Amino acid sequence: MISKKSANSSEKVSLKVELRQVFGKKLNKIRKQGLVPGNIYGPDFKSQSVSVQQKDLIKTYKKVGETGVVYLSLDKDNIPVLIKTIQKHPVSGFLLHIDFRKIDLSKKIETAVPVKTIGVSEAVSQKAGVLLILSDTLLVEALPEDIPSHIEVDISAIKEIGQEIKVVDLKKSDKYEVKTPAEKVVVSVIAHKEENIVPETAVAAPEIITEAAKEGAEEGTTVPVAGEGEKEKPAAKEAAPTKKEVSAAPKK
Description:
Blueprint: E1 13-16, E2 18-19, H1 27-32, E3 35-42, E4 45-53, H2 54-64, E5 70-74, E6 77-88, E7 95-102, E8 109-118, H3 122-125, E9 130-133, E10 137-142, E11 151-154, E12 164-166, E13 176-178, E14 185-190, H4 211-218, E15 222-223, E16 233-234, H5 243-247
Parallel strand pairs: 1-5, 3-7, 8-11
Antiparallel strand pairs: 2-4, 3-4, 5-6, 6-7, 8-10, 9-14, 10-13, 12-14, 15-16
């Protein structure tokens, strides 16, 4: 799994890519060579197919995640982009494809920024509450180089079970604006609920047959069958006389 770390805002991160002429099923060949196929796209920009060394891509992603600006070195150009979508193999985790979003450094953009909790909540540490993170990311608008690597949420403000922190409660910044609705709950603390453990197999209560039920069965009456809407079944017929009983009958 690729972890994400915040990059130094003063550090310019570059990544070398090459134009790609291979498509479709032939992409498996370049993947075996340690290359990851990708695309560069964006407004007022002609989409370009590229490839990048997997080891360089992983190293870059660890620095900037999906919020830091990366300068793609393509021939003689340095193209500012954000890493948008990384496709990975579900079993091996091998990188299959990468999308780069071309950006204009002079124009504000909207992008999702991860939430990071800091501090200790008394409702959790002392009152056995359960912390729920209801918003993993928040939508932020900013100039590309002012996009934060994460947004901190100080949960030490939560003292009692049932309290919550909304977007409106977060610290404001003069570099970016959170566009997620102000009443959206980011984190909350709820009471811990213990689950009742019910045995999977319960012992059925013994059936009690009364004398009246026995007599009714002997007289050929019908006995209702359990289950709504089911038909009644007739009681068992009187058993036929045994051979011994027949031979014992008086001769005429």
